[in-house]
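Protein in question filed below.

…
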Amino acid sequence: MINKGSEDKTTYFNRELSYLKFEERVLNEAIEERNPLFEKLKFLAISGSNLDEFFMIRVASLKTLLNANFKEKDIAGMSVREQIDAVLKSAKALNKEQYRIFKEVVKKGLKASGIKLVDSYVNLSEKEKAYIDSYYEENIYPILTPLVINSQRPFPIIRNNYINVCGFVRRKNKPDLKEEFAIVQVPKGIERVVRINNGKNITCILVEEIIKSKFNNLFSSFYADNVYSFRVLRNADILIDEYPEENLLNALQKEVKKRDNTEPVRLEVEGKNSLEMISFLSKELKISKRQVFKAPGPIDLTFLNEIYNMKGFDNLRTPEYIPVMPWEFDERDLFEQIKEHDLMLIHPFESFKPVVDFIKTAARDKNVLAIKQTLYRVSGNSPIVKALAEAAKNGKQVTVMVELKARFDEENNIQWAKTLEKAGCNVIYGFANIKTHCKISLVIRKEKDGFKRYVHLGTGNYNDKTAKTYTDISFFTAKEDFGSDAVNVFNMLSGFSEESEFKKLSLAPMMLRERIIELINRETDNAKNNLPSHIIAKVNSLCDKEIIDALYEASMAGVKVDLIVRGICSLVPGVKGLSENITVRSIVGNFLEHSRMFCFYNAGEKEYYCSSADWMPRNMDKRIEILFPVERERLREKLNHVFKLMLKDNTKAWELNSDGTYSKLNKTKNTYSFQEGFCLEEKETFTGRK
């Protein structure tokens, strides 16, 4: 066994700092020479959005532990205070780099491409000012609510993740009176980037800069010498155990509403903000000045998404990839194809359409009696939700497990749940303290020889939009053992069964960690007995100590372990006598690497698995997850081919060093990108077989 204690800084990396290392890799795509300009600004926006979420969830969680006087150290041996200090230092360095890239790469690149992003109303031409004045009167002014804060009016609730424009003001008729604080919230229902078309060129100005220029007009009885913008991020981690007497839906609705008044975790202000304003805001918001970030540019860089989505400028984007339809999916009845043999799709290289068609076909098939499905995150106009509603209206029994606690999708999922209920679906809201994260659909069909069960299992969400940008696996089967297990899963979710015997599926939180460790230990035993051994695992995050320790044991026994970990990795590779046989790489490309895939050599009888779960404590202990085997030889070969291509990547892949840093893999003359290469393979196969 591993002799290291649970507080050894040389054996495990801290998960929060590891995540920020991932954000550095994402941010690197904003300066990657091979990326067109709009792709660079897209990655800069993603980096900004990810850092915001990190504060609202992970930093908020650390603050909660600190407030509760939590003393236990993490697996890297860091106290809560040490983690917060290290995180703030690392996050501020990352934020500084974000704005350097914005100024030196993105803004300059936009100007050279005919898109001028002005940082102030005064920098507009007279003609442009006239256009903006008219735009302001028609589209902005009517929905603004200016507030002056004084002894009669308390400091307002500053809503989470809203930009605000503020200033210290004096009364025009009584300039000697004490300054008061004036503020106006920038609405989110309007476009943040206002565009002025000047023929061949475009001028862009942010809506808060327009409001700043009209600030003294808004507060006509006052005047302000300086006007600033700021934004507050608050704790967005929802806890619902405060409402034990209520059902999950009502409790969650209450918690979502509370997000705008939770503890602030980050205050972002303009870099030119006065010390007096920073001091005032910090005091009123009750936030430590260590949590104040001075932005040397526009607050909240996600506005770059609006520029990315501007029509035209296709030469500044990576050409859109159109997913292909695998040749095994033909024009025949989909259920007949699945009954013939298991089928698999690799998104977004291959189309998500068969997944949608699986539910649509079931909804309209007169022989289908029942459909059962889990929903975690779906698109805003989901064809799958519409198909489920149609199925219920067609008289089929439809049961949908809607995970209301999908972070930042709570309100969206609440609305979908109500829509499905109105259509006649049986909607299950899940459990208060466990998220249903598995992706599973079950269709029960009456056929000549009796009832037949068709199953879809996935590593990603039933979301037709993200399926175009997230790499995931979709698996279809009509095998009896899978169908039996699927029935047991849904019986468990609906509360009819707590303990079931599963033949093919391994589920968290009951058995998944044990099954993974069992598979790892088998490789360890094989290595000790001089049998062939090898583990290849692809996950988004790896920070479960028991799994890491099992991997260390495997390495020490001589097992070659290749890990492809996109984000957090607490395992330390390449340490002599501990993990010298383990390599860790992270692929960051145009698609988000989201699939969870595994290969265990098994003394030459390779076994392949896919899963909805990452190797994290939360996935093993606090979520309902599924691990499923891929048994058909053709599909196993397909997964093996994908693994080979990923391990061949020397363009978008980063290697984790034993000191916690990441290095780009040494490029040879023959550079290779997995995502680009696999896209090309799929296109060539499609074209060649057409």
The chain has a mean pLDDT of 91.
